[in-house]
Amino acid sequence: MISIKTCNICNSNCQGFDGVSCIHNIPLLSSLNNNELNDISQGVVTREFKKGEYIFKTGDKADRLYIVCSGKMKIYNSFADGREQIFYIYGSGDFIGAFNLLKEDEYKYNGEALEDTVISTLTKSKFDEIAIKSPTITLKILEKAYERIRHAEDLVDRLSSTNANSKVARLLLKLIQSFGTKEGNSIVLNLSINREEMGSYAGISRETMTRKLIYFSELGLIKLEGNKKIIIKNMDKLKELL
Amino acid sequence: MISIKTCNICNSNCQGFDGVSCIHNIPLLSSLNNNELNDISQGVVTREFKKGEYIFKTGDKADRLYIVCSGKMKIYNSFADGREQIFYIYGSGDFIGAFNLLKEDEYKYNGEALEDTVISTLTKSKFDEIAIKSPTITLKILEKAYERIRHAEDLVDRLSSTNANSKVARLLLKLIQSFGTKEGNSIVLNLSINREEMGSYAGISRETMTRKLIYFSELGLIKLEGNKKIIIKNMDKLKELL
DNA sequence: TTAAAAATGTGACCTGTATCACTGCATAAA
DNA sequence: TTTATGCAGTGATACAGGTCACATTTTTAA
């Protein structure tokens, strides 16, 4: 289901969606002047992707830049045997495809909505052209590139851990860092991924993830509330498992 | 053993080492004008690190930028149990520590010379100051950041492979891509790492690496010549193992 | 509200690879 | 040359976690 609407916040031709993704609200582009914004907005398309819908697939030509306006998506690799390896989970403000300025490339992994997600896409050639002339944007992209390197290295840390306990502990800490919220004394994780996906983000099977989470909650490190909520009870002991 | 000499190529105060690392020869800095080069050269120290010598360690303050002039080094993480995970192998022209422009940080992993290696270091604050004003340098850094993301993602691909065969095949292809040379019809790998390090770059043990390499050579995919040379006999079949 | 589908939990089993312990080889030092 | 030291090869063994099969619970759709 594709839904393209004219933005109802600004009065320019920004191709926003329900106001959420008006390009004047995209942090990456906030330093541009009106001329540049107008120029870019010609190539902007904003739409909602339903949970489970592909945003792009491995091998797709990377000629569009994706900016997450709301919701969450995962970037992952599919194996022949059906397994998958999640690389990144992106939320509001994150963008994909801006690091290869002026370089042709294709997406190496799949992008898929984890929940109903609004995404703006812009023509990469147009974006590149403007970005390369704007030191502010270049620096912002570099800043994000650095974050992404760190993120990928974190994933390597997780995958190279000796045992499943350590992988799960590392995953939880990563998720806390990215999506954790404070509720009173404790830290709460409201997950948008299921056990299978947690496993594939940590490099273990669904079953092992289930067992380890139960084990952690028996140890009093966490408390499981339903399938989509984890309350962290003992951060220090969790860190000891690394 | 520290050896600092004045560059014998250029006549400026560039702090080069045996001429090899004269900062006028560093690709990253090639777009700077003479004023900027002179400015940066104040903070340049070039020295040789002997094989096995640490260049930096986990936790070291990242207040210097490292540029490899000649030789090879590895970036790796040490585990409590003595195992290590290699992240990157860098050679001539590669640099470390330039991605976090104007941001304080510390090195997350160890850097160690794989062979006798000449390295120039420059004061990061001075470099940042100049780099951030030079769009050409910023773009060069971004380009390298993109490579590094790809590199880290490659490593994830390797580590997330199902079985050891696939890990070894991926490692070989990676090494070919980075360091492979053509000799006649076949592609040759002159390694600067031992079996243990190959294992730690692929996410398997030394023994498994040994066994798999022998297995591959029995299959006729490769030919082992001593411990530091591998000749690729059948690239296509190697790729099939992914 | 009910039916169907998807996600999770759980026991039993199996297997690939880590680990250990040792031998042989090659390179460097004495 | 001989001796020492580190690296590589190899067989035996153990076990963590993958895989399978099915029960149970939760979510979604009808």
Order of helices and strands of chain A: HEEEEEEEEHHHEEHHEEH
Question: Order of strands in the sheet with the most strands of chain A?
Answer: 1-8-3-6
Uncertain segments of chain A are 1-6
Q: How many distinct domains of chain A?
A: 2
Oligomer classification: homodimer
Please, how many helices of chain A?
Answer: 7
Radius of gyration of chain A: 19 Å
Q: How would the global form of chain A be characterised? A: elongated
Cα distance spanning the termini of chain A: 43 Å
What is the H level of CATH, i.e. the homologous superfamily of the largest domain in chain A?
Answer: Jelly Rolls
**Helix content class of chain A:** 25-40%
| CATH fold topology of the largest domain in chain A | Jelly Rolls
- Biggest sheet of chain A, in brief? 4 strands, antiparallel
- Arithmetic mean of pLDDT of chain A: 89
Largest interface: A-B, 32 and 32 residues
CATH class of the largest domain in chain A: Mainly Beta
Give me the CATH architecture of the largest domain in chain A, please. Answer: Sandwich
Structural class of chain A: alpha+beta
Strand content of chain A: 15-25%
Find the count of extended strands of chain A (DSSP E, 2+ residues): 12
GO molecular function, one term (chains A, B): DNA binding
Domain HTH crp-type (chains A, B): 162-236
Domain Cyclic nucleotide-binding (chains A, B): 28-148
Keywords (chains A, B): DNA-binding, Receptor, Transcription, Transcription regulation
Essential attributes:
homodimer, 242 residues, alpha+beta, Jelly Rolls, Arc Repressor Mutant, subunit A, 2 domains, 4-stranded antiparallel sheet, 7 helices, 12 strands, 35% helix, elongated, disordered N terminus, DNA-binding
